[in-house]
Design a protein that fits this description.
SBP_3_CS; 292 residues; D-Maltodextrin-Binding Protein, domain 2; nine-stranded mixed beta sheet; 12 helices
Amino acid sequence: MKAILTLVLALLLPFFSSITQARNYEDIIKSGYLVIAVYRDFPPYSSLENDQPVGIDIDLGNKLAKSLGVEPRWFWVTPDESLEDDLRNAVWKGHVLDAKKKKADIMLRVPYDREFNYGLDGYGLPRNELVHMFGPYHQESWAIARDTQKTRDVRNLAIFQYEKVGVEIDSMPDNYLSGFLGGRLQKNVVHFVSLKDAAEAFKKGELAAVTGMRSRLQWAMSGLPDPDITGEGFEMLSRRQWDIGVAVKQDYRELANEVEYLIDTWVKGGSMAEIFSQHGVSFEKPSLYTEQ
């Protein structure tokens, strides 16, 4: 029995050490760097251009690191099957297929939503008990960019029974539009690998509209004079808009307090709006600030 227990403990030790070891705030400051997780290939938030990180979250990460007196180091996240997987891989454990890969100190652009943060899994246990989510810095929403010469004054989705609409494949708008009106829009829902590709087709006059996240549509439609981008048509969605914020490992509370203070100052003082404006995106205050 002792031999069996020793073997079990030996097998479990790497797992427990991977979720308990953490750089505290003092360690981060002494090291001189902050590891920041951002999504790969997700403009205008985070991407690489000429091998240089660019985007809203990159600018925010740089500003956070500078304010803490350290340099930023980027941890690029490739989306997994769920957000819980992304948080596990980036924040509290590390990737299951690469145990040697280091974790990030903070992760940007995660939902700031009490229902999600404190939700339970299929066993009735907390889904995100090892993660602390805080510091909302923007409100995102679903939107449609329209060519009003094709859609005219029609602001609902029924117009796409007759006109083509571009969607990023496997996105929420893809699933929603494909099933809308019993599937009557399917023949006019045109799939693209990226929102940028859909926007290029739109600019060439091949589509009447493109759907996606408002901020990404604003970025993708750059160069067009006064593009028509609104949320009209998505009124029946259960979640049309949501706040985005920051996540850290549960025991990184001192770091979280510092970051939360900085973000709150920038949201209230206008610095956050300036970051978004530099990328052609309109800043929307999170509900934490608009509902006060």
